[in-house]
Design a protein that fits this description.
- About 70% of the residues lie in helices and about 0% in strands.
- The protein contains 15 helices and no strands.
- It has helices at about 5-10, 20, 25-30, 40-50, 50-75, 105-140, 145-160, 160-175, 175-185, 190-205, 205-215, 220-230, 230-255, 265-275, 285-310.
- It is elongated.
- The longest helix is centred in the middle third of the chain and has 37 residues, at about 105-140.
């Protein structure tokens, strides 16, 4: 039967005959969705999961985080509990990583050190991200003399020797967790500020930003609702790489003897404590260094995976 165009237009989709669409099996195929729609972050997670090294790094960090919380709570040893019958004991079933010169279980001290090192890395990276996003966003959006003044200050802070101001802050505030975080946050935000500034400069001339500005949106609203969310990819990648840098910087300071004060022990403090007996008892240095290296590798793998997942065009 032939249908006039007017008849077809007046009929509902459900009432149209199969002959209009062809065979029934073809009609069913055309109505099937090849893949359910994904949000941007679901698509990022899908690409991130394909990176095996990134998933291994994420798994290690999760296991280390859970272990450093639960193991000291469940263990019969404490981080400052001394056993003079086990001084400098080699690794065994009793002491998995051996014991130090005071008979303290090294494995438990490494787990306590993980709490301090991971806390420093995560807190310092979070503070640096907030400062860098704020400074870089204001600099890039305002432009003009504001941008010039802010970026010259960033250049001056970046040119200062980091070890110099870290030593000054540690001398003024003492050897504590707070002073280490403040010292690491003093100029570490400058790299994030540059990244955010470049992204804001690129995005602020976009059509949706211009439309929001014409609609009367204020500067804080534009930055928080439009510019910063669309620049989160580079910000997240920069923060992910900042965490291992903060952990290594703290370990380096502790290794020099200007980090966390004993008996509390970060991984750098443990390595510093065992360096004088490394020839006779190498396990005192090897295990803390292994913990530092594995953690840094894991965060670097996660950063590489996030960079490729957030912007697949950067993948070589």
């Amino acid at each position: 039967m032939q249908y006039a165009d007017t008849d077809l237009r007046s009929m509902r989709y459900e009432d149209l005959p199969a002959s209009v669409f062809g065979p029934a099996e073809k009609r069913d195929d055309t109505e099937q969705i090849a893949r359910p729609s994904l949000t941007y972050w679901h698509d990022v997670w899908r690409r991130f999961r394909k990176n095996k090294l990134a998933m291994i790094g994420l798994g290690f960090i999760l296991i280390m985080t859970i272990a450093c919380i639960l193991v000291p709570m469940l263990s019969v040893y404490s981080y400052d509990g001394m056993d003079y019958t086990s001084m400098n004991a080699a690794p065994s079933w009793k002491h998995l990583c051996g014991a130090d010169f005071m008979g303290r279980d090294l494995f438990i001290r490494i787990m306590y050190g993980a709490r301090i090192s991971l806390t420093i890395g995560l807190v310092a990276a979070a503070i640096n991200m907030v400062i860098g996003v704020t400074v870089g966003g204001v600099s890039g959006y305002c432009g003009g003399y504001t941008d010039i003044v802010i970026m010259r200050i960033v250049d001056i802070l970046s040119s200062l020797p980091s070890l110099l101001y870290i030593l000054l802050i540690m001398l003024l505030l003492g050897k504590s967790l707070t002073s280490v975080i403040i010292a690491l946050c003093f100029t570490s935000w400058t790299g994030t500020a540059r990244v955010v500034r470049n992204e804001v400069l690129r995005l602020k001339q976009s059509e949706y930003v211009l439309a929001a500005r014409l609609a009367g949106a204020r500067t804080p609203h534009l930055l928080l609702r439009h510019l910063v969310p669309n620049a989160m990819g580079p910000i997240i990648v920069s923060t992910a790489f900042m965490i291992p840098n903060a952990i290594f910087s703290e370990a380096f300071l502790a290794f020099l003897g200007i980090g966390i004060e004993l008996p509390k022990a970060s991984w750098g403090t443990l390595a510093n404590g065992g360096i004088k007996d490394m020839a006779s008892y190498p396990h005192l240095v090897i295990f803390p260094i292994i913990a530092i290296c594995l953690t840094m590798f894991s965060f670097n793998f996660i950063g590489d995976g996030l960079r490729d997942a957030l912007d697949p065009r950067l993948k070589h």
